[in-house]
Amino acid sequence: MGSNGVSTLRQGEFEAAMEAGVVPLMVSEWPEVDRALLDGAGNDLGEVVEVISTATGRTKTLVKSQLAELAVYAKADDDSGSDDLNRMRRMLKNLEEKSQEIAEFARGQLLPQAKEKVQENLVVSLLVAVGLGFLLGFVARSAGRR
Question: What is the pTM (predicted TM-score) of this model?
Answer without folding.
Answer: 0.48
